[in-house]
Structure formats: C-alpha cells, structure tokens
Amino acid sequence: MSFYIGLLHYPVYNRKGEIIVSAITNLDLHDLARLGKTYGAKKFYVINPLTDQQDLAKSICLHWVSGHGAAYNKDRREAMSLISIASTLEESLKEIQEIEGEVPTIIATDAGKGGRQGVTYTLAREIVASNRAVMILFGTAWGIAKELIRKADYLLEPIFGVSYYNHLSVRTAAAITLDRLFSKIAEQ
Prior knowledge:
Elements: E1 2-8, E2 12-13, E3 19-20, H1 26-39, E4 44-47, H2 51-65, H3 68-72, H4 74-80, E5 83-86, H5 89-100, E6 105-108, H6 121-129, E7 133-139, H7 146-151, E8 154-155, H8 170-187
Parallel strand pairs: 1-4, 1-7, 4-5, 6-7, 6-8
Antiparallel strand pairs: 2-3
C-alpha cells in the first residue's frame, strides 16, 4: 500500500464560489503531517503556487525537522519530515510517479455540495489496499475546483454528520477520511 496525502490550496473556491489561492496554515501542516504519519502516508504534499506561502511552509518545516523544534519534539520532527512543498498538483504527481514508477490514482474529496457522484468508502478501501500508488487529495477554503475534481480518478463520497451543518475543517475531514479508509484495512 503506497498512499500519499495532498492538501490543495489552488484551485479552490472562496465563499462566493470564486477560484482562489488559499493561505497555508500552521495547524494544517502540523495536524495533517501527524495524521499522515499515524496512518502510514509516504508523503504529505502541500500544494500552493505562491512562493511566499511556500516559503512560510518551508520555514515552519525547517524549524521542526532540523531547527530547534527537531530537538525539542522528536515525534513532531518525524511527522513534519513527511511534508513536501509543490507548486501544482501536477508537480506532486510527477514526483510520486518518479518514486513509484507509475502515475498515482487520485481520490479527491469534496463536501458533496453538487456535481459528480462519489465512490463509497468500501470501494475506496479496495483502491488504497491495492498495490497501486494513491494520492488522497483534500481541498482547503470552500473546496477543490470542480474542473480539477472532474480530472480525478475517483471522488470520495462526502462526510455527513447528523445535522444539516456540513462544513468541517480540512483537518477534521482528513482525520475522519483516513480513519474510515484505514481502520477497516487494519482489521482485515
């Protein structure tokens, strides 16, 4: 099982439905790196085309991987070393292809506010349990642009709670997603 996490900052929507580049947040880096490490991701790609945002992410990672934070918290260093910064999704996919010798299967996520029908977690578990490389792609802001979702190999069914409210943070959605995908594999 070779899986990768992608956190997409462009192209994503703002609350008005416009395509934007969203900002990188410290919490997303820390929490998704720790999540990836916990569930066995090979890498966690932070995808943002803006050099100032890339520099911010690199600075945060440097602190925890080789700076003062590395000595202070070795567990955090281990998780943060999963992070790779990419300008585009294509750049991250190319790097995975170089590592794995194949183009990864892309499983995109979306809150389900319209558009393409998502695959079930049962099917997604089969996909990630295969011997193929898989990129699980999460969006920031108000979600991944539909044009990119259409290009994904699969769209995962949305996470629904018990109320009408459906606006989870990407950190929370990613944790639920990976647990749904991998806890069942561990039981088999």
